[in-house]
Design brief:
globular, 4-stranded mixed β-sheet
């Protein structure tokens, strides 16, 4: 699984858990899934749980950046959760 979307989270928060590897062809699907999950309502916070991205490669960095842009364009605040030193460097 590339990513999962949290089920039980505080109201106004969407959690996306990224897997340890992400394929380039999954990135547009992840962004579309996020937009679908957010629906038409103005989201509060999108949390990216990146604990499994221990050594993110260029595709994972690209996926995280595109997901962040997608969330911000939808009006959400973006938060990285469980970011190690490598993942924290990916935050924009």
């Amino acid at each position: 699984m590339v990513a999962s979307f949290g089920e039980e989270v505080p109201v106004g928060e969407t959690v996306v858990v990224l897997a340890s590897t992400v394929a380039r062809e999954d990135v547009p699907v992840l962004c579309a899934s996020l937009l679908s999950r957010l629906g038409g309502a103005r989201p509060g916070v999108v949390v990216y749980d990146v604990r499994e991205l221990l050594e993110p490669d260029v595709v994972a960095v690209d996926a995280l950046a595109r997901l962040q842009v997608t969330a911000r364009r939808a009006g959400a605040t973006v938060v990285l959760r469980h970011a190690g030193p490598s993942s924290a460097a990916c935050s924009t």
